Amino acid sequence: MFRAKQVTRTLTLRLTIHYTVLEIETVLKSPTPRPKSLYSPCYERTLQATGYIIFEEEDETKMATSKEFRVAGKDMVDVICNYLDNIEERPPLSQVRPGYLKDLIPSEAPEKPESWEDVKKDIERVIMPGVTHWHSPHFHAYFGTGNSFPSILGDMLSDAISCIGFSWIASPACTELETVVMDWLGKMISLPETFLAGEHGLGGGVIQGSASESTVIALLAAKMRMIRKQQEIDPDLDQFDILPKLVAYTSDQSHSSVNRASMISSVRMRVLPTDERNALRGDTLVEAMKKDRKKGLLPTFVCATLGTTNSLAFDRLSEIGPACEDEGVWLHVDAAYAGSAFICPEYRSLLNGVEYASSFNFNPHKFLRVNFDLSAMWVKDKRDIVGAFYTDPVYLQHGHQGSVEDYRHWQIPLGRRFRALKLWFVLRMFGVDKLQEHIRHQVKLAREFKALVMSDQRFTIEAEVILGLVCFRLKGTNTQNKELLDKINKSAKIHMIGTELKGRYILRFAVCAATTESCHIMYAWQVIQDCAIEICDGVNGYKNGGTLSNGANGTAEACISPD
User: Fold this and answer.
1) Which of 8, 193, 203, 407 has its CA 20 to 30 Å from the CA of residue 33?
2) Which residues have C-beta within 8 Å of that of residue 246, sequence separation ≥ 6?
3) What is the pTM assigned to this prediction?
4) pLDDT 10s digits, 247-300
5) Which of 559, 558, 538, 553 is nearest to 474 (CA)?
6) HEC string of 292-349?
């Protein structure tokens, strides 16, 4: 609350709360004209002239000034650093039961502000027990998610600026930095120039939240492009007459988000079989499109995957691309995890055929040290994507339209964060060399793990090891492999997941955290072997694992096959 009293000397006035004119007059009872806000310099002079000042009761629990934020902010940096420095000591998979958190906090929000110290105490008490630690070197599930101090710094600045970059005028730097860094990133993976914005190109990159969003956006853009084409042929056609004829295609190994894109767009999806290496082939796609054309349907969209979630398989772009070009079909390439590796020249050939694509996407927030969320998407002709999402109400218009990008037309939401900052920070503070070094190190660790698996006759490798994922299983039943995974995760020492590959249940071992080293690979393998002992007693007569000759520094380098 505030009180007023007469003073005889000039005092410095610091005001933090707005009061109405009526409230000010009630407190001061002065005939001097009042401005509408206590923040006004005019009102400060009024107070000095009348000899009154308004005091605020001390309330140290509030974080109302930058002075208080500096203290808490520095403290929070210490909390973050201590967490990441000691993350290895925590079980990688949260051990709580559903509903644990509601019993640890009140059922309603506090009426009065609480101190930073009280909030900080609850980070460990309330939050950390329910965290699965994705950046632990003992986390080997899914695919990794990026993390680095430069990226965290970029997000801090983005949160401070806190702009809503739906148009160029809403924050020119937000738009222009995104255009530039997306061209940087495209050049790093040697994307064809047709995908780059350049000076006056039709292509360009945009930051989405996830690969799932990118697939939805690509499919919706392809849908509207095909509808416009059909309406050019027959202007009397309504889009709802055309929609039931549209068909999209993907493989039986593509991510579940591709099917979700079909649900959102109302475009039917054909799921096509893959070959013995779990890859979609061109002849399979061509045959499917021919069958649909005979039915009077319109092949519209193909989603090819470079690095599937199940086994890191690569669809054959060099076969799929020409087929899509011949049929006038939109080809979207999803390289969510694997795309980051294309910055290394030795892996760039995996991207061959992308020149046939209409859109391409990968997630720097998986493998390139950028924190979630930042998914990089490029289109060859921005008119297709803008044409699908263009809206221009008067309240969003500005004087530079047509000469600048307004990224609200490239996405589903209107608002967008200043995500380009963290990518810019990462690319500058690591440089291409260090990022390449990170990727090569993670691939090396995956091959070390592969060598360990191959040294034990109880196990078999189930898919080619190309990057940072190893798919393997016991030489037993699906049930036994599920039991093994359950034992591994219940041990709380490492965390892994399983999947199904052509009817066989397999275990996925992903190298995820940037801090993972050879010692963690050896540790994980020991945990797996220990958990396998009981299960393997009756499997094919193997009671013990095979012998292993370790390389230098405890690694399995001596056993790595030259793949």
Assistant:
1) 8
2) 223, 226, 227, 267, 268, 297, 298, 300, 301
3) 0.84
4) 999 999 999 999 999 999 999 999 999 999 999 999 999 999 999 999 999 999
5) 538
6) HHHCCCEEEEEEEEECCCCCCCECCHHHHHHHHHHHCCEEEEECCCHHHHHHCHHHHH
